[in-house]
Write a structure and sequence with these properties.
Order of helices and strands: HHHHHHHH
Structural class: mainly alpha
Helix content: over 70%
Distance between the termini: 82 Å
Number of strands: 0
Number of domains: 3
Number of helices: 8
Amino acid sequence: MNDASAHRLARRARTRQREDDLLRHLSSIADINNESPTHIAFNHAIANAVIEGNSDPMPTKKTRTMTTEHKAAIAAGRTESRAVKNYLEALERNRPKRGRKRTPDSINKRLSTIDSQLATADVVKRLALVQERLDLLAELDRLGDQEDISVAEAEFVEVAAAYSERKGISYSAWREIGVSAAVLKAAGVSRSS
């Protein structure tokens, strides 16, 4: 055996001895602190890294940066989604109810009928008439407060074509959800899309 081999073997023996000493020390610390085997394994990994000369055993976290174009695309997508959501919610709120439409005149006529019936009604009937009167008054207030959706519609028209393209939304889907053909035409969404 030459000197180089003997030197290598002696160095390995010293390294193993240091490893064993360090592991015994870590195990005794783990026993004292009632640490789990996971902590012991973690400590073992750190010990091996220190023995091998790596002072920072934990991998460094890679930082990711978004390009300006990517940030702009995300912002545009949010703006489009917000405009579409606002318009569709406004359509939903202003969707006509089924059945015969009530006018302010028909509501006022029913209110006067209720007022005349209240004087002669028994207690249970009077309760029902009072509730009906409250419901009619609330409906009369709602009729006067029709929401103006022109702003939401204008924003929708600006983004609908790009949104449809990006999300794969067809003309038929827009129509089925309640968007009028005239609005889709103004937005540039065609039947072929």
